[in-house]
Amino acid sequence: MDRVLGKIRISSDAKFAVDGTCRMTRVNEFDSLGKAGIVDGDEIIAMDGVPMGGFNWFMLEIEKLGVGATPTLRVRREGVEMDIPVELLKKRKLNFDIDEAQVDLERRIAPADENAF
Question: pLDDT tens digits for 41-68?
Fold first, then answer.
């Protein structure tokens, strides 16, 4: 997955199978899935009762629902199926001045004595 959708925070990694299901390979504890309790190895098999239809289907459905919605994901964990509600969180916006960050970086890596080289 590892994509940030429009305004929704989902950046966990997953592998999608031919049947459309999705096995989580690296869950980001700070995104919508991680905060809901989805863990590495979970297999998402349905959303709101509809069988998973692959990566593109999942992303489009999430986008349609929008920030603040709480779809229920049907998850298979170690052979046991469970329903997990997932609140679609708003992605965080990084606010910083790129020029200021560059100056700070240069200051951190610059030698203490410019005549040292």
Answer: 999 999 999 999 887 888 888 888 888 8
Domain for residue 5, yes or no?
no
Q: Which domain holds residue 87?
A: 13-111
CATH code for the domain of 43: 2.30.42.10
93: left (phi over 0), alpha (psi -120 to 50) or beta: beta
**Would residue 2 count as lying in a domain?**
no
In a domain, 4, yes or no: no
pLDDT: is 95 or 50 the higher one? 50
Residue in 92, 81, 79 with CA at minimum distance from that of residue 35: 92
Radius of gyration of the chain (CA): 20
Rounded CA-CA distance 100/89 in Å is 29
Q: Which range has highest mean pLDDT (18-22, 99-103, 113-117)?
A: 18-22
Contacts of residue 53, defined as CB under 8 A and 6 or more positions apart, other chains included, come to 20
Tokens of 93: 């916006």
